[in-house]
Specification:
Blueprint: H1 3-23, H2 41-64, H3 67-87, H4 95-109, H5 114-123, H6 140-143, E1 147-154, E2 157-165, H7 170-178, H8 181-184, E3 192-196
Antiparallel strand pairs: 1-2, 1-3
């Protein structure tokens, strides 16, 4: 491995260590079930990212043997934790969701960085080895999005992005688009493409 690769690994593991220790003293001792129905905003976004990451890493390791993309997915979850830390007021943290996120990062990281994962696992209060922990399973209902972003292209050029409720019919989606002020000026356009991002 090149020096830059080793330095990149080192920086990533430091990021994992720092975010775990940022929350470590506030995490609940007992792991509690997260009530998905009561989640909103950033809590729901982080919870969805946890389960999306579990699905990606599990598929990458078990099915495709793509270890680089598995690590990339773990990095995205770590970035999600930092985003949560920066965007949510400390008094409003949902520590059950945060604990699940940190625990998930550690367990998913264990095959790639066993010693760091073991240290962090013990630091968050787990008594048994991380290598004896059950592999996390994702919840399909956690992956469902309430909103989606659509990209509006006119004659092959992106003109607007809209966030709309998931599950809109084609007619409802067209009404949303045609009600947008930026699109009204393109009445004589040749072709409108809607791309769900």
């Amino acid at each position: 491995m090149e020096r830059s690769g080793v330095e990149g690994c080192y920086r990533f593991l430091n990021r994992v260590w720092r975010i775990a220790y940022y929350f470590i003293n506030d995490l609940p001792v007992e792991t509690s079930e997260v009530d998905v129905t009561k989640l909103s905003g950033k809590d729901k976004e982080l919870y969805r990212l946890i389960h999306h990451t579990i699905k990606r890493v599990t598929d990458d390791i078990a099915t495709r043997f793509n270890f680089n993309t598995a690590i990339s997915a773990i990095m995205e979850l770590v970035n999600g934790l930092y985003h949560y830390k920066d965007k949510v007021e400390p008094r409003e943290y949902n520590l059950a969701v945060v604990k699940e996120a940190i625990s998930t990062v550690i367990v998913l990281l264990a095959p790639f960085a066993p010693h760091v994962a073991e240290e962090l696992w013990e630091a968050i209060g787990q008594e048994e080895s991380v290598h004896r922990a059950a592999w996390p399973e994702y919840l399909r209902e956690a992956l469902v999005q309430d909103e989606v972003t659509i990209v509006i292209q006119i004659n092959g050029k992106v003109k607007e992005k809209l966030t709309v409720a998931a599950g809109l019919s084609q007619e409802e989606l067209e009404q949303e688009v045609l009600a947008n002020d930026k699109i009204l000026g393109y009445e004589r356009c040749i072709c409108v493409h809607l791309i769900i991002a």
